[in-house]
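Re: the 421-residue chain
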Amino acid sequence: MIRSIIAMLFIAGICTIHISASYAQVRPNFPYSSLGIGEINYNAEGMLSGLGNATSAVRSDQYPNNANVASLSGLQRQLVLLEAGATGTSASFKDNNSSASASYFSIDRFDMAFKFNNWWGSGFGLKPLSTVQYQIVQNQTYNGGTQSISTTIQGTGGLNEVYWGNGWKIGNHFSAGLKLSYIFGNITRSEIAGYDVNTPLLNSSEQDYYQNVHISYAAQVFGKLGSSWEYVLAGTYAPHQYLHAQRQMTVVSGVDTLAFGKAPMADFRLPDQYRGGIAFTYQHSLSFLLDYAYEDWGHATTAVNAVQMVNSTRYGAGIKYEPEQNYSVYAHDWLHRIVAMGAFNYTNSYLQINNQQLRDINVSLGLGLYNAPHTLNLNLGVEIGQQGGPGSNSTLINENYVRLHMGIILRDLWFVKRKFY
C-alpha cells in the first residue's frame, strides 16, 4: 500500500504542476476559443472517453464516472483509484478564403476515488474547464505602402475546476450524489503593435481573473428487467452561479509602463445545467446508452460584436461492451480484461455568431485494457468530428479535428485485513 500511495502522490504532483503552468505559454491558434470563456471541455474522462456525451447513466464497480457522482456509490468496497489523463488535438480550419491547421498535447487531468463502505463512494480531482489559445496577426501599410505596422493579438488561459464528489446508496435501487467545485483561472488577451514582432512599439494586455465555488446534484435509479437486462436512469442538475471577476490592465511602450491597474468588470454567469440519461445492459456486458443535456446560457450576456451566448444542448448515443467480471480468468484470457465503446455525439454550442449557432458533430471510440492482476488500466479514446456553422451555406469557419485521449488508472484495495496461515 505504501508504494501505491507514493505513486499516486507523484502522479498527482506532475498533473497539478502541469495544469497550473500550461496556460502560461502561447498555444496554437484555435479561433473559436477567442469567444466567451473559451472552448468548454465537455469531453468524457478516463475509461469513458470513448463514450463522448453518453456517460451520465454509466454505473460501474471498477472505475469512476465523474459525469454523475451518484455512480461513485457503486464502486467496489475498499477500492482506491488514481487516474491521470492527457489530451492531444490536431485540427484543420477552413473558410471561404483561407485554410490553416493547429495541434497541441497536454497532461490535463488528475482524479482520485475511494469506496469507504457499502454505501458511500467519494472522489476528488483537478481538470481544465475551458481553454483559450488563439493568435491573430494583422498588417497595416502607410506612406504609400513603403512601411507597415504589424499587430498581433494573442489569447491564453482558461478556467480550471477542483472538485470533490460524493455518492451515497440509499436502499437497493437509488443513489444520490453531490459535487462541490472550486472554479478558478484567468484569461489573458494581449496586443502587440510594432514594425515587426521583434521591435514592438506598444504592448497592452488584459488579464481577467475568475473564481467562485459551484455545486451540483446527481441521482441514479437502477435495477433489473427480467433475468437478462439491467437499467440505470440518471440525472444531474447544477444551478447557475456567478464567477467573481477582476480585470488587470497593463500598457507598455518600450521600457516605459504607460498604464497599470485594475478595471471594473462584471461577474460572469455560469448557466443552469440539466442532464439526463438512460442505460440498458444485457447480461452484465453489453450496454446501450442515451444522454441529453441542456444549459441555459441565454441569460449570461447580450450580443457583443455579433457574438451572443445562447442556450446549448448536447446529445449522445453510445454502446459499451465490458465482459462480466470474472477474476479467475484474468490471468489467462485478455478478452475478459477489455472495455470497448463507441458513441455518436451532437452539440449545439453556447456561442452564436452572426445569428448562426455553432454546432459540433463527432464520433468517439474507446478501448481500455487491464493487466492480469487487475491493478493497472490503460485506456485510449479518440474523437473525430467537425465544428462550425449549420448547413453548407454557413459563413463560419469549419474546424475538422481529431482528438486523442490517453489515461492510466492505478487500482488498489486499502484497509484489507491480511490473513496468514
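DSSP finds one helix and 20 strands in the chain.
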